[in-house]
Every structure is written in structure tokens, then in C-alpha cells.
Amino acid sequence: MGWIPDEGKGLPPPGVVNRNSFWLGGMGWCAAIMNGNVLSGVHRQVLLTTIGWFLGYHLTKYENYVHAKLDREMNEYMKLHPDDFAPKEKKTFAEIVEPFIPVR
Length: 104
Fold this sequence. Notes:
The chain has a domain at about 40-80. The chain is about 55% helix and about 0% strand. It is built from 3 helices and no strands. Helix 1 (about 20-35) runs antiparallel to helix 2 (about 40-80). The protein starts with 18 loop residues before the first helix and ends in an 8-residue tail after the last helix. Pfam families: NDUF_C2.
């Protein structure tokens, strides 16, 4: 058992390129650059970028699990309390907009 329960295993995996992995990979690369010259320590740049990318991927995976869990709980609440979420009557655009009276 990992940090995501078994019920989270049914979620589709996030894309390899996502906002968190891109951001944390870039932060890892910046941390490696700050430590020395741009051309020295290329192995360190690759390593820290890869670690950041890996952490970002799994952070996105956990984020998707948490949001799916919250969505499930919210939908369950809506099913249990349908009177609180009654559908509103649909209005036409003409009913919303005030009548046009030209002023000269």
C-alpha cells in the first residue's frame, strides 16, 4: 500500500508532461545551475531535473486523487439532498435583458 489508497488506482494516470512536473523539473535544473557554472556539472543538472520531474508527476497523481475524492463526496451529497440542488428554470435571453428604448 502506497500513499494513494487502492481506490485511487482506478484513476487514469496523468500525462508525463504536466504543470507540476515541468515546474519542479525546472526548479531542479535551476538549483543545479545555481551551484556552479552552466557547463560544469551536467550530470547534476540532469539528475536534479529528473528528480524534480519525478516528484512533480507523483504530486500531480496525488492531486488528481484528492480532487476525484472530493468530487465523489460532493456528488454523493448532491444525490442525498436533491431538494437543495433543484434545477433552475431556464430563461430566454429576452427575459433577462431589459427592453430596449432608444433615447434621442
